[in-house]
Specification:
single chain; about 140 residues; alpha+beta; ph1033 like fold; 5 helices; about 35% strand; globular
């Protein structure tokens, strides 16, 4: 199993929207590296749902339920999407400032590649962040 972090602007698509919908496609990604991250996803992979912009915090956990396929919103045909389902909210949202303050997360892609909307999360990072979020890994 691999782990990921999905960033979303809460005004566009929030954790509450994801929970209400249950399963939804993660579309609109127009960065090649983020798209390649989604190409690497497998059914059953887990991810953090991250509110970007003003909140900048991990708020929930999702699961990949459908692997990479063409994004219907991409007229160029270059980019794809995956389907994710809401699994559970975190008990304690973890802010970006808390992530940056943790020395063990200094090389985490959220810190190093802050502009990417979909980033990988290493196993040790996943375990540590789950602990910080107050959820079982």
């Amino acid at each position: 199993m691999q782990y990921w972090l999905f960033k979303s602007e809460p005004g566009e698509w929030s954790w509450d929207d994801q929970v209400k919908k249950g399963v939804e496609h993660w579309d609109g990604v127009r960065n090649y590296q983020a798209n390649n991250n989604m190409k690497a996803m497998k059914r059953g992979d887990k991810g953090f749902f991250y509110h970007s912009v003003n909140e900048k915090q991990i708020v929930g956990i999702v699961e990949v339920v459908n692997e990479h396929y063409p994004d219907h919103t991409d007229e160029s045909g270059r980019f794809g999407m995956v389907d994710v389902k809401a699994v559970k909210p975190v008990n304690t949202p973890v802010k970006l400032a808390d992530v940056k303050a943790e020395p063990k997360l200094a090389d985490f892609a959220l810190v190093k590649q802050s502009r990417l909307s979909v980033v990988p999360v290493g196993k040790a990072e996943w375990k540590l962040l789950c602990k910080m979020c107050g959820v079982k890994p």
